[in-house]
């Protein structure tokens, strides 16, 4: 898990980066593939600032080679991943404690959708008051392997550190409506504090749910700067040993150029998939805590205190939805009007770990 982004959307005024991000690769840097270092905490991307962390090396040396599966060994690879990362396979002293875990399901447009809900001890008060935040999480696995069970341990840590409920599932956007509606209401979730997240393939999926239906590209790096204007503020997390590293850096750079307030954190000594590695690596555990702290900052940053203007007048945040936002922005771009004047307050974390705060939908999102 290397690329993460977190977004919040401010409905008024120009967007400014929280701190400057590197420019996209130019002719002068194209040969080396490097991006300028922008912060003492973020090493230069390109020549490795540090070696792979010893805890990750130890994990790789003591576990079998894990692949994404294929036509012949798909089932075998899925079983191997489950045997390594599944919650049942972890030592009990490595499982992160949490208040409660609920196994439920909802009726989706194409059948039943299993959902696993993680309730943090730290979020009990907000839950009882109907002000809880929620993270809807799409797991990774290269679209071939992976299961909710393999990611639960890392997500327990995200839940407990952030104080937000985590709704872990396979990639079904219909769950967003449910969490922002009756499903979330009876669990104490405030509709304006619902986020969407995912790692790796799941991160790409959550971006696809958010991006305008006219923009069908899955990879965030394929989006032009103009396409990204009006996106929610972001925090992007990348790691050094990851095939998705460069696209994550490019995405952060494009967001910054588009005027989106963007935070970027790079872990040069981590590899892809670090959400699953907290049982073996203290640096992976700290990286997951960093993500959780961004979730907490965004979801509880007075998201529910804003009122937005619309052609009909003042509309509370929880009365708007993502489809309204993207379609309205698309029409405004075509007409030359300023975008996002009717946007919902939104938060997102992106590739491999993305987070979006969605406003309460009136219609079903992209099914």
Automatic annotation (TrEMBL):
The keyword tRNA processing does not apply. GO terms for molecular function: hydrolase activity. Residues 214-275 form the Alpha/beta hydrolase fold-3 domain. Keywords: Hydrolase. The keyword Hydrolase applies. InterPro entries: AB_hydrolase_3 (IPR013094), AB_hydrolase_fold (IPR029058), GDXG_lipolytic_enzyme (IPR050300). SUPFAM superfamilies: alpha/beta-Hydrolases. This is Alpha/Beta hydrolase protein. It comes from Neurospora hispaniola.
């Amino acid at each position: 898990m290397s690329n993460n982004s977190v977004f919040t959307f401010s409905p008024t005024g120009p967007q400014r980066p929280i701190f400057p991000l590197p420019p996209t690769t130019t002719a002068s840097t194209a040969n080396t593939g490097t991006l300028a270092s922008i912060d003492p905490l973020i090493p230069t991307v390109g020549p490795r600032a540090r070696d792979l962390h010893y805890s990750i090396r130890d994990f790789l040396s003591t576990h079998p080679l894990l692949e994404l599966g294929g036509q012949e060994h798909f089932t075998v690879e899925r079983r191997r991943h489950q045997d390594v990362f599944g919650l049942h396979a972890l030592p009990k002293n490595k499982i992160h404690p949490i208040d409660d875990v609920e196994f439920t399901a909802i009726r989706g447009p194409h059948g039943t959708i299993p959902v696993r809900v993680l309730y943090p001890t730290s979020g009990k008060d907000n839950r009882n008051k109907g002000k809880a935040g929620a993270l809807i999480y799409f797991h990774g696995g290269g679209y071939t392997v992976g299961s909710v069970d393999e990611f639960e341990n890392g997500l327990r840590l995200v839940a407990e550190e952030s104080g937000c409920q985590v709704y872990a599932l396979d990639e079904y956007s219909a769950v967003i409506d449910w969490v922002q509606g009756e499903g979330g209401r009876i669990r104490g979730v405030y509709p304006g504090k619902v986020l969407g997240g995912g790692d790796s393939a799941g991160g790409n999926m959550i971006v696809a749910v958010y991006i305008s239906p006219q923009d069908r590209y899955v990879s965030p790096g394929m989006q032009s700067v103009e396409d990204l204007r009006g996106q929610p503020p972001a925090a992007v997390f990348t790691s050094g040993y990851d095939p998705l590293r460069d696209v994550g850096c490019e995405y952060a750079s494009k967001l910054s150029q588009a005027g989106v307030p963007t935070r970027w954190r790079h872990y040069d000594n981590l590899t892809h998939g670090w959400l699953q590695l907290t049982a073996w690596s203290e640096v992976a555990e700290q990286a997951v805590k960093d993500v959780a702290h961004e979730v907490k900052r965004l979801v509880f940053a007075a998201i529910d205190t804003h009122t937005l203007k619309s052609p009909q007048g003042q509309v509370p945040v929880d009365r708007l939805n993502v489809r309204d936002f993207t379609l309205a922005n698309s029409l405004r771009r075509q007409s030359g009007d300023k975008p996002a004047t009717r946007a919902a307050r939104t938060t997102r974390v992106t590739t491999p770990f993305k987070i979006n705060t969605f406003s309460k939908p009136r219609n079903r999102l992209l099914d």
